[in-house]
Amino acid sequence: MDDWEFRRLHRLMVLARRIDEDAIALQRQGVLPAYAPAKGQEAAQVGSAAALDPARDFAFPTYRELGVAVAMGVDLVGYLSTHLNIWHGGMYDSQASRLAPFNAVVGGPVTHAVGWAMGAKLDETGGAAITYFGDGASSQGDIHEAMNFAGVYRLPVVFFCQNNGWAISLPAARQVAGGSVAARASGYGIEGVRVDGNDVEAVFEATRAALDRARDGGGATVIEAMTYRLGPHSTSDDPGRYRSLEDEQAWTGRDPITRAARRLPEADLAEAEQYAAEVVERVREGLQALTPRPAEELFSFVYREPTAALLAQQRAWKESLDA
Ligand SMILES: Cc1ncc(C[n+]2csc(CCOP(=O)(O)OP(=O)(O)O)c2C)c(N)n1
Ligand SMILES: [Mg+2]
């Protein structure tokens, strides 16, 4: 990776970190009802998303993918509006930005990505899907069906697992027997690799290789990025109740941003911070200026053709307003 590209990835990680910190502050100030911090996972998120080709690929995130949104250049006010809970799945344009609405169903985005990859294969678009999921999600049945389907049909999809050590309070060791999510790939006839998820360059290279193979008809890959969630599971969680300070401190010493910063001159670090501070300010103002959407839209965009049950709910809702 050349210096220019490395600097770009570092700058995106710093931006993700600062926006993440501000989102937590906004939650504490009562602006955001809840938030799922991404601190510590910036290299895994930025490194993987930066390897995508925005002209043909598509990403399917979980609820913790701020770094992916940052690296893909998604409108961050629209992205964070999901945490503001004012509209279905965020107010950014998913089609244009190539990032699906974020998904709070554990394992949910994985089946969507495989379906999208089936479409890309049938239409011969040359695009590949990437889907994000956690160590906890890796024990969900949907993941296994999705990987098997991708293996059987040789689909262009990258299963990107961020193994951050925890599924809320459950350690990965207690639900991944054998210890490796990547190792499961061989049972589905697909590639599996494990990378240091706090090394942004290693993540970028592994993802680029997997995307290239997917586009060349080589099928799917499981990438298991070994990382750590430095903060709480969500703003309602207290990790002090289930993990040790020593563990947190050990991983703080492996902070992906500090690590990348060692390769860069002071001037670049200062410039990255200044840029991040400007964007944080803009995003904060944008979020605070958002007003609620019409309540009627609760019923829009759920199905292409609304079901009878949905229409009945809509009628009941309207009647309750008149009552
Ligand atoms: C289908 C489903 N089951 C359970 C939950 C509740 N839940 C939310 S996050 C989470 C843990 C997920 O852990 P992991 O996949 O490791 O992702 P991480 O939160 O660590 O990023 C659980 C059980 C959910 N949202 N969806
Ligand atoms: Mg996890």
TrEMBL record:
Residue ranges that the Swiss-Prot or TrEMBL entry lists as coiled coil: none
Reactions this protein catalyses: N(6)-[(R)-lipoyl]-L-lysyl-[protein] + 3-methyl-2-oxobutanoate + H(+) = N(6)-[(R)-S(8)-2-methylpropanoyldihydrolipoyl]-L-lysyl-[protein] + CO2
Domain of life: Bacteria
Keywords: Oxidoreductase, Thiamine pyrophosphate
Dehydrogenase E1 component domain residues: 11-278
Cofactor(s) this protein requires: thiamine diphosphate
Enzyme class: oxidoreductase
EC identifiers of the protein: 1.2.4.4
Family membership noted in the UniProt record: Belongs to the BCKDHA family.
PANTHER family membership: 2-OXOISOVALERATE DEHYDROGENASE SUBUNIT ALPHA, MITOCHONDRIAL
UniProt function note: The branched-chain alpha-keto dehydrogenase complex catalyzes the overall conversion of alpha-keto acids to acyl-CoA and CO(2). It contains multiple copies of three enzymatic components: branched-chain alpha-keto acid decarboxylase (E1), lipoamide acyltransferase (E2) and lipoamide dehydrogenase (E3).
Protein name, UniProt field: 2-oxoisovalerate dehydrogenase subunit alpha
